[in-house]
């Protein structure tokens, strides 16, 4: 028999600081690496900068009121490190931390549980200039300084803490997610070194939540795409297992077992890509246990076998910048291990992301069976072009269809025993995409702006806004 969603299940949505806040240089905030990367994206591709984004910094009361209207019981957002510590460390920026106090109190006054992300791609630029940001091990100490301050500040208001957003995606798409000087961009080992520094930072943050927050729970937010084999050929099944090891288990084994996945680590060592691990690192990682795993699920992946005959070098996935199906330049190839391919059974978004609700159930059941820890969805959604009609409506039935099927799949996983804490689709409101500007929209609320012109960032409710309101009011019964 199908069970109902638990009464205390959290319904909400997610955003991240640099993608939604704007006010990039206001009230003492200094730039993060994303302010710099997105200025380049504007220059090269014409995508919006992070200067104004959706201007939530000035609209947060209106935005929280809309969350309340939809019935949210949680909101996942991130803290901008360089708003709190403009130089990364040192003096706190009083006005910066006050913004988060105000936001959190506004949420709590409206019965919305804050779910904080400590780090979402936006390393303070001062630390990039000082020592290269995450490239240098010193970042772990500086992150600890920042995280301790924030966790202490909100320990009585915030129960759920996600540490670092999407280490797996940072490894795969590192120059979009980290500022890497051009002369280092070919050094793939550094991707895994950065990830190792993040593993240390993640473990420290988990320990701190346990130490400082009464009843506090901590976990990473991981970008996760389950991998299918292209065919039932044993070689393809093996390739899918390899891709699963390198793209997914390499992270989840750290969070829950405190070890690097053996197959992935073997492959990385063979290819000179493994991170340098110092004495005591693995003990620290193992001691920073996660209470849950937060998952950002948009698509599944598909892999097939790939011989290593020496003719092809390791090749990373490209990004679809055009927003036209099929425009993704390249797919990942790890010679001798696997190559990623298009799944012929699935349709895609205009940015080539495979639409796969079954993958949601597949991922949740698999992870819960293997690690036996509660899960939450901290991102899931459809990036699409929306049209504002003359009578100021947005008929985003395609988004409703996507979300409906994914919620149903999550529910099915729960019927099979998976313990879920929350569902936070991406995103509560339209915002700046990590790599496609503002025309690729995800929100329940339309933000009236273009890549070139932020206008007034007027908020307009989409059809999906009213649909999600009903979903929440019925505690997921009415999809
Ligand atoms: C995740 C990120 C988010 C978000 C989302 C959609 O990887 O955590 O920050 O933006 O993907 O991706 P995009 O913005 O590239 O469409």
Bound molecules: 6-O-phosphono-beta-D-galactopyranose
The structure class reads: alpha/beta
Instruction: Report mean pLDDT, rounded to a whole number.
Output: 97
Q: Could you give the order of the helices and strands?
A: EHHHEHHEHHEHHHEEHHHEEEEHEHEEEH
Task: Compute the number of strand runs.
Answer: 14
What is the end-to-end distance? Answer: 18 Å
CATH homology superfamily name: Glycosidases
Helical region count? 16
Shape: globular
Specify the biggest β-sheet. 8 strands, parallel, barrel
What is the topology, as strand order, of the major beta sheet?
1-2-3-4-5-7-11-12
Assign the CATH architecture.
Alpha-Beta Barrel
Radius of gyration: 21 Å
What's the level 1 CATH class?
Alpha Beta
- Characterize the quaternary organization of these chains: single chain
Strand percentage lies at 5-15%
Low-confidence regions = none
Give the number of domains: 1
**Helical content, roughly?**
40-55%
Could you name the CATH topology?
TIM Barrel
Structure commentary:
- The protein has helices at 17-20, 33-45, 56-70, 81-84, 94-109, 125-131, 138-153, 167-172, 174-177, 189-212, 234-257, 262-270, 281-287, 357-371, 397-415, 463-473; strands spanning 10-14, 74-78, 113-119, 160-165, 217-223, 227-229, 293-296, 301-304, 333-334, 338-340, 375-379, 420-423, 445-448, 458-461.
- It contains 16 helices and 14 strands.
- The mean pLDDT is 97.
- A hairpin with a 3-residue loop joins strand 9 (333-334) and strand 10 (338-340).
- The chain is globular and about 60 Å long.
- The strands form three sheets. An eight-stranded parallel β-barrel has the order 1-2-3-4-5-7-11-12.
- It has one domain (10-227, 277-298, 356-473): Glycosidases (TIM Barrel), CATH 3.20.20.80.
- By secondary structure, it is of the alpha/beta class.
- The chain binds 6-O-phosphono-beta-D-galactopyranose.
- 6-O-phosphono-beta-D-galactopyranose (BGP) binds next to loops.
- 6-O-phosphono-beta-D-galactopyranose binds at residues 16, 19, 165-166, 169, 223, 296, 379, 383, 426, 433-436, 440.
């Amino acid at each position: 028999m199908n069970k109902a969603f638990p009464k205390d299940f959290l319904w909400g949505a997610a955003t991240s600081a640099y993608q939604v806040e704007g006010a990039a240089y206001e009230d003492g905030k200094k730039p993060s690496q994303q302010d710099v990367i997105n200025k380049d994206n504007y220059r090269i591709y014409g995508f919006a900068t992070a200067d104004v984004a959706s201007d939530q910094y000035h609209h947060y009361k209106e935005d929280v009121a809309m969350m309340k209207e939809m019935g949210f019981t949680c909101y996942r957002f991130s803290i901008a490190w360089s708003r709190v510590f403009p130089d990364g460390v040192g003096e706190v920026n009083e006005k910066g931390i006050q913004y988060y106090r105000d936001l959190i109190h506004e949420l709590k006054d409206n019965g919305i549980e804050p779910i904080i992300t400590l780090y979402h791609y936006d390393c303070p630029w001062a630390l990039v200039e000082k020592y290269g940001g995450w490239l240098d091990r010193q970042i772990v100490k500086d992150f600890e300084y920042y995280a301790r301050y924030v966790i202490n500040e909100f320990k009585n208001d915030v129960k759920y803490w996600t540490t670092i957003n999407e280490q797996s995606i940072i490894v795969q798409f590192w120059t979009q997610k980290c500022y890497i000087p051009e002369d280092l961009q070919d050094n793939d080992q550094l991707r895994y070194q950065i990830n190792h520094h993040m593993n240390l930072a993640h473990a420290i943050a988990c320990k701190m939540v346990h130490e400082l927050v009464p009843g506090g729970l901590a976990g990473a937010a991981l970008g996760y795409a389950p991998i299918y084999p292209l065919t039932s050929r044993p070689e393809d099944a093996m390739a899918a297992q390899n891709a699963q090891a390198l793209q997914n288990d390499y992270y989840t084994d750290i969070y829950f077992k405190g070890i690097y996945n053996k197959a992935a680590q073997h492959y990385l060592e063979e290819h000179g890509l493994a991170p340098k691990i110092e004495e005591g690192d693995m003990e620290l990682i193992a001691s920073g246990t996660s209470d849950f795993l937060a998952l950002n699920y948009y698509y599944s992946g598909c892999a097939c076998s790939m011989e290593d005959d020496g003719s092809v070098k390791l090749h990373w996935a490209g990004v679809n910048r055009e927003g036209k199906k099929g425009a993704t330049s390249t797919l990942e190839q790890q010679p001798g291990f696997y190559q990623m391919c298009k799944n012929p059974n699935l349709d895609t978004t205009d940015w080539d992301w495979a639409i796969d609700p079954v993958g949601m159930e597949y991922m949740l059941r698999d992870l819960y069976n293997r690690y036996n820890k509660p899960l939450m969805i901290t991102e899931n959604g459809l990036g699409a072009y929306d049209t504002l009609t003359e009578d100021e409506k947005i008929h985003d039935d395609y988004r409703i269809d996507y979300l409906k099927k994914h919620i149903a799949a999550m529910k099915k996983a729960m019927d099979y025993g998976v313990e879920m804490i929350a569902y936070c689709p991406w995103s509560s409101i339209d915002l700046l995409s990590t790599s496609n500007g503002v025309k690729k929209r995800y929100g329940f609320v339309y933000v009236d702006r273009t890549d070139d012109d932020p206008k007034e960032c007027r908020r307009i409710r989409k059809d999906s806004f009213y649909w999600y309101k009903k979903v929440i009011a019925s505690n997921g019964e009415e999809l």
